Amino acid sequence: MLTKELVPIVLLVEDITKFVCQSMENPKNKTGGYLCITDRNGKLCCLNQIGMVLDLTKAEKYAGFAQEKAKRLVAHPDHISSWQSRIEKEDKYGGAIRVGNNIYSFSGLTEHEDEAIMLTAARYCSPEKFSTSQQAT
């Protein structure tokens, strides 16, 4: 269930995703994906479609990837980003960011774009929780 406190994050991710889809090279004409937000223990706070994902098979895949990235980050408490534990040949990608007591995860665009969207959302939604002391090495 989407709570009032999560609505601004979801709206921001929608805006960032729209900007990325319109501004970057987009040969596959992707226009969306899935946003997953969990608490630090992996409890699901929201799983929302962002933009349009017209192919139902891909929608299920993106929703699953978004949740997997968040769960993987929970399993690596010393990591800031799921990029730190990515294994492409096992379909484990970047695109999740730890922000304070939450994890923001996105899947649907390229791996780099997923990660960039989450970094941008984290910075704008929780600047006090996204300090330079949390940067990955």
Key traits:
3 helices, globular, 137 residues, 20% strand, four-stranded antiparallel β-sheet, alpha+beta
Q: How would you characterize the overall build of this protein?
A:
The chain has 3 helices and 4 strands. It is α+β, with helices and mostly antiparallel strands and 137 residues long. The protein starts with 6 loop residues before the first helix and ends in a 12-residue tail after the last helix. α1 (7-23) packs across α3. It is globular and about 35 Å long.
Please summarize what this structure is.
The protein is an alpha+beta fold. It has 3 helices and 4 strands.
Strand order of the largest sheet: 2-1-4-3
Inertia-based shape? globular
First-to-last CA distance? 35 Å
What fraction, in percent, of the residue positions are helical? 25-40%
The topology string of helices and strands comes to HEEHEEH
Number of helices: 3
Rg over CA atoms: 14 Å
Strand content: 15-25%
β-strand number: 4
Classify the secondary structure makeup into a structural class: alpha+beta
